[in-house]
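Running this now, will post back.
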Amino acid sequence: MKPQLISFKLCPFVQKAVLVLLHKGIEFDIEYIDLQNPPDWFMQISPLGKVPALKVGDEVLFESSVIVEYLDEIHAPSLHPEGPLRKAQNRSWMEFGNECLGNGYALITAPDENAFQDQLRQLQDKMDRLEAQLGQGPYFNGEAISLIDYSLLPFFQRQKLIETAVPAAIDESRHPRVKRWADHLLQLPLLAESTVPDFEALYHDMLRNNGSFLSARFQ
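Update: finished.
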């Protein structure tokens, strides 16, 4: 039986799971719901009322990091580096990636310029930390792609979509390694497959209509 992901069309957290499923060639189904008006059946299976959720037969997993770890564990080869310590370090940075996604959402929903600039500073500080962590690439761990790469790719994609209108969180002069890493990941062929076909248009529509500081810049 194929696993089934439940999400909404712009969710960056479910995209992490989709990227892993695509990388490993796992057949799956996906169902999109309206999080503003979630169906009763979803609230019954998702204890936190959040997406993504992954249905595996009659069982349900929730939280994106747990889902991608499960998928990685049951479908070899692993997308983690070898060694318990290195794996644990990567898992720590995956949680850091979740924090980046959280700041990224706060950035695009900031109600005014002060709130926007505060989130931008927080993201730039986070990019400083990534810059200090990265080697020569092209991936986070060097030559081999890992779960951490797929964990940050949705963040990089969304930053790319707003940087034409506002200052970028990733400053090439300040974060050359992060910029090189992000650009490399954004060229991955499976990126386009990991979102709905009209993702960019839907994302810009959301930016135009969410009443945020950014809205006027995408009219």
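The chain has nine helices and four strands. More later if anyone needs it.
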